[in-house]
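Tokens for Methyltransferase small domain-containing protein. Go.
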Amino acid sequence: MVTTIRWTEAGALRSAHWHSESATSAPSRVIDADDRMKADTAYRLACEGTALLWRGDFHNARQLLQAMSRRINRKPLERSDSPAESFRLHRKARSHRARVLGRLLVLLQDDYCLNLRRAPDVSQACTEAYGPPSGPMAVPLTELLGVMGAHQWRTKGVEVPALDARIHPHYGVFSPVRGEYVDLVAHAPLPASTDRRADHRTAFDLGTGTGVLAAVLAHRGVDHIMATDISPRSLACARENVRRLGFTDRVDVVGPGLFPEGRADLVVCNPPWVPARPTSVLETGVYDPDSSMLRDFLAGLAAHLESGGEGWLILSDLAEHLGLRTRGELLAGIEAADLRVVDKIDTRPRHPRVLDTADPLHAARAAEVTSLWRLTAK
């Protein structure tokens, strides 16, 4: 993959390191753009594959991005009566939008300074997302705005009623804004082996992300929780949240990996709910290609449960309504792993998109149910 962009400015050839969280190759054609560029021109060039390196006013760049977005919206969305085809068209449209808008670039200097008029100080946000600076770096403006937004989330945190505290998500780590899955873990009956009367209670939280479910289990009185993830960003985020919440004596964050060594009385897993390929690192909390994490959880669960222990699978049925996975396939996976279902606790989503009738996936979202499946070894 090309990791450098080159452009001509004031008659001189210049270059910078290219960074894209979606792993998009560096654009082969880059031209300067500033406040004189019209939205129609910018949109046309971006659709043709030309990247625009912004050298004007920062707020004008944001306005140009909005104008380009409006031009994308003018094209009617393709629709289908097939849920699976609707999902495919939805992803295609989102990919086109991301590709076109991602061609408006900004240049971060050696210290992550954004040398544009009326530009905010983005150095802290960029350091949190990318690590220490290592030279000039070009990024899509859309990505930089996401980095800035993530910094605000990380600073302010997300209120989690089940903890009566805030969780602070890092850039690239799925935020617990959909509280229904957290509430399921907060209120499901603990298996007998993790009852408060037990001498010692252990749990695994697989794919911990921000660490929110591990924290909920600690809040409920589980003595020792091992939280895992494959993402270094998630591991760092979970460790920070565990420390903030004062649970370092109960929660160990380990990884990268899925299952830690040993067995536990309770194994909790909230895998990505949609079996589709993510197009960026940021989408890995939502999309699980071929349900690979779900399959690995089911396949390894029995071998990691103490006698009388339970596995809690938190899973939305959105994929079923989209025609991407059937209930029969899920039940067959549970059966093949020598597991049985003890109970299933359901809840309805509460996020605003459920009410958005303009969403091409509205029918599926309106029918969605999130469930906590209580599983035991046969």
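The mean pLDDT is 92.
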